[in-house]
Design brief:
The protein is an alpha+beta fold. The protein is built from 7 helices and 7 strands. The protein has helices spanning 2-22, 46-52, 56-69, 109-127, 139-144, 146-156, 167-211; strands at 27-34, 39-44, 80-84, 87-94, 97-103, 157-158, 161-162. The longest helix has 45 residues, at 167-211. The model is unreliable at 1-8 and 13-22 (pLDDT under 50).
Length: 212
């Protein structure tokens, strides 16, 4: 057990040092969990998947441990910080939803905090279209808007590299995607209706012609 723990510590030091040297990698994992530690949406960087938490079983166990160690009285309006297993966890909670960013001990907490705030705000904004009340973000709202939530995780982080932290820009991308999909759907429906009308006209013409 001691050897395994020591190897894990060495891997973490090597990995975080490598990321720091590159000046790009910052986030080991971005987690959206419920208050029991059940995953709703998660994203691990390649290093974390291959070296730290290999396989879904190890990831789920870590996620349960994170929720079990986080303070239960966290303010839903602010990002809080905890240290778990030598990892720094920046998190924001509301009702039965917790958004967590997992980073090494030497990472820039301010940049990570801005990302967590941006993710949380973007998720809340995305949920407003589905009976979003003043009670705030809930597990059910996350599940109802899961495609948007997964898009948000992809938008803010690419293999540990922070790509975006601004909620307005993230929400604008979601709106743009939704509008594009709606336009494409409308165009497809119009083309289908046009093709149907054309087929009906040709069928009617052939029937009239055969009777003549």
């Amino acid at each position: 057990f001691w050897l395994k723990t020591r190897r894990s510590d060495q891997l973490l030091k090597i990995g975080t040092s490598r990321m720091a040297d590159e000046g790009l990698y910052q986030v080991l994992a971005l987690l959206v969990l419920d208050s029991e530690g059940t995953r709703l949406a998660v994203k691990y960087c390649a290093y974390a998947r291959k070296e730290l938490w290999v396989g879904v079983k190890a990831q789920v166990a870590f996620e349960k441990r994170v929720i079990g160690k986080l303070p239960k009285n966290a303010s839903r309006s602010e990002v809080d910080v905890a240290v778990i297993d030598d990892y720094t966890i920046l998190f924001q909670a509301c009702n039965d939803v917790v958004v967590c960013a997992v980073v090494g001990a030497n990472e820039n907490e301010l940049a990570i905090m801005q990302m967590v705030e941006g993710v949380f705000a973007a998720m809340s904004s995305a949920a407003q279209g589905s009976s979003f009340l003043s009670t705030g973000l809930t597990k059910q709202l996350v599940l109802d808007n899961l495609s948007d939530v997964l898009f948000i995780l992809d938008e803010v982080m690419d293999d540990g590299i922070i790509m975006e932290t601004d909620e307005e820009k993230i929400s604008a991308r979601i709106k743009m995607i939704d509008e594009t999909e709606a336009t494409n759907a409308a165009q497809a429906e119009a083309m289908f209706n046009k093709a149907t009308q054309s087929a009906k006209a040709k069928l009617l013409g052939s029937l009239i012609g055969s009777r003549g």
